[in-house]
UniProtKB/TrEMBL annotation:
Residues 30-435 form the Major facilitator superfamily (MFS) profile domain. It is a multi-pass membrane protein. This is MFS transporter. The lineage of its organism: Bacteria, Pseudomonadati, Pseudomonadota, Alphaproteobacteria, Sphingomonadales. PROSITE patterns: MFS (PS50850).
Length: 460
């Protein structure tokens, strides 16, 4: 059976450490499988973006039509992210992720058969649903890891998964080039290349169902059926969503996420075309240049989460918010410099600078998410994740209205810098901070106890 129960272990705790080279525990299996699934989803989500110069030529697309395609690619994700958070609370991340992968593969395959602008736009819109995979990824690691490492875990799986977007920028043009080298036409080459991410999604769905479980104790459906209380209590669905929406911190972080992750996926959609149109690079070289931005996700988002966990040891939750504010300011300055860059070398340097801050800000945002409201984690994660896509859609409309992409980037930089104040607005009550500090101290004590046990077990 696809969803065979992994069993229940009520004594299993959240992990207090990240053992990167292990998959022996449910926590580390979830860690590795969820970032792999997220990588595949992001690869599929942006697989068509670096091929847009070919698609533009085949369909004779106008500037407005290309803008519409880029907006469609991220628009539907807003709605799906709002839905999958509560679905995780009700059915668990394992079931939710598996079905998202299977259903999301359909429009990826469909894109290969598009013959008109309208059908291409439809499938590009539908593909956007798989962007909701991020919410499930963050939910899954949030329930698997303790407060002392949850920020690092969330940021690392998010960053490694986000790298799928960068990999698509670099690899999809190479796949097409290889097919053309075998003698096929460009029009067939880009279509055949879309089967690579589609097949990977189907395979990943079965891996996720087979090798993960929802929580350290077992699957949420099984735990609830056995009468075992969860962090969310008995609330499900809309009750969790309403609780999350009533928390003003959710909306502040939705705004910051719109200004960092929204910018990230906007850049994924336009970067290759930007380097082709502005600097005259070939499709392959433009893809490699754009891939640098996505490649930063391999470590930069994790760096944001690690920094957030470290500062929380000293400054608590307020320190996490202050770090996010500083990273958002750096991102805004870098974006302005990228827009002003007059050569490909300066553009790549500026893109690398603001990309570093952007990915770190994404990691720092979701390092805060598990602490907003533990009883509405799915709703909080979904709403904040949707904020990221709202930011991407807004950036798409700004680009459509701007005289040039450079003008759009400069304006976007100032908007991001202004949005940084939302991070400063995230504040917690003394009771909230005291409760979270107690949980953090308990996790640190558990880790020290575990370390002592390991040391005693080692041969002298």
């Amino acid at each position: 059976m696809l969803f065979a129960s992994p069993g229940i272990d009520t004594a299993a705790p959240k992990a207090t450490r990240i053992d990167l080279f292990s998959a022996a525990t449910p926590q580390m299996r979830a860690f590795h499988v969820t970032w792999l699934a997220f990588f595949v989803c992001f690869f599929a989500w942006f697989a068509a973006a670096p091929l847009m110069p070919l698609i533009k030529a085949e369909f004779g697309l106008s500037k407005d039509q290309i803008a519409n395609i880029n907006i469609a690619a991220v628009a539907v994700t807003i709605l799906v992210r709002l839905v999958v958070g509560p679905l995780c609370d009700r059915f668990g991340p394992r079931r939710t992720y598996t079905w998202l992968l299977l259903i999301g593969a359909i429009p990826v395959f469909g894109l290969a058969f598009a013959q008109t602008y309208e059908t291409f736009l439809f499938f590009r819109l539908a593909i956007g649903a798989i962007g909701a995979s991020f919410v499930i990824t963050q939910y899954h690691t949030s329930v698997m890891f303790a407060p002392n490492v949850v920020g690092t875990a969330n940021a690392t799986v998010g960053g490694w998964g986000n790298a799928g977007g960068g990999a698509a920028q670099s690899l999809m043009p190479l796949v097409v080039a290889a097919l053309v080298g075998l003698g096929v036409e460009h029009a067939f080459g880009w279509r055949a290349a879309m089967f690579v991410p589609g097949v990977a999604m189907v395979a990943m769905a079965f891996v996720y169902a087979r090798y993960t479980q929802d929580t350290p104790q077992g699957d949420i459906v099984d735990l609830r059926a056995a009468g075992i209380d969860l962090d969310g209590g008995k609330a499900t669905g809309m009750a969790i969503f309403r609780r999350a929406a009533a928390n003003y911190r959710t909306w502040m972080l939705a705004a910051t996420y719109g200004a960092c992750f929204g910018v990230e996926i906007f850049i994924h959609n336009i970067a290759a075309s930007y380097y082709v149109d502005r600097f005259g690079l070939s499709l392959t070289n433009a893809g490699l240049a754009a891939g640098i931005f996505g490649g930063l996700a391999l470590f930069a988002r994790a760096l944001g989460g690690i920094a957030s966990d470290r500062i929380a040891l000293v400054k608590g939750l307020d320190g996490r918010a202050l770090l996010l504010f500083a990273l958002m300011l750096g991102e805004g300055v870098g974006l302005v410099l990228f827009g002003h860059a007059g050569s490909v070398t300066l553009a790549i340097l500026a893109m690398t600078m603001f990309g570093l801050f952007t990915h770190m800000a994404c990691g720092a945002t979701y390092a805060l998410v598990p602490f907003i409201d533990r009883k509405a984690l799915g709703g909080v994660a979904g709403l904040i994740g949707a904020g990221g896509n709202i930011g991407a859609v807004a950036a798409g409309f700004l680009n459509k209205a701007s005289a040039t992409p450079q003008q759009c980037l400069i304006v976007l930089g100032y908007v991001v810098a202004g949005t940084a104040v939302c991070a400063l607005a995230v504040r917690f009550s003394a009771t909230h901070k005291s409760d979270e500090r107690a949980l953090l101290d308990a996790a640190l004590d558990a880790r020290r106890t575990s370390d002592r046990s390991v040391n005693r077990a080692l041969p002298a």
